[in-house]
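User: Predict the structure for this protein chain, please.
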Amino acid sequence: MFNKAKNAPPENKAAALTPPDTRSSATLGTPTSSARPSLSVIGGHTQVEGDINSDEDLTVEGRVSGIITCKQHTVTLGANGYINGDVFAHTLHISGEVTGNLVAHHRATIHKGAQVSGTIVAPCLVLEDGSVFHGSIDMNPDNDVLKSAFSDAIGSMTKTSPKATVEKHSTTSANAAEHDTTEAKAND
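Assistant: Here is the predicted structure, written as structure tokens:
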């Protein structure tokens, strides 16, 4: 607790310092990507016009007009974010505003404060209290839209546009036809 040698010379702290290791992590045998999953972020002051294809998780805090395709990863829309177009993802977390179709291979969550207008196709859907949704919902896991949109998620991309597929099937699907005029507002 206390230093008993009052007259001991001060330690040479400069000699105790070791220089930082300048070798890259690749030379140490540690892969750099394992530390944290890759993520793309569209910031709150960014506006994108055009289609986005991502092979990593995507967070949208700004505005996007176009098709977002992130079939093997998660797309998150922040509370102040806006998407005008279709979104194809493994998992969706929506807290902002969407005008377009949402297609999730696994799960779509529409969080409190979100506003969505369009078709939602997902085998698992969560509409939190305080979210607003106008459109149709299809939760059939064998849905043709899911099958055609995600048939190439593991393999190579197909030539068919996912947007055209959604528009074609959203009005012909039995579940979508039942819910074409659905307007839902989740409240307490």
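DSSP finds five helices and 14 strands in the chain.
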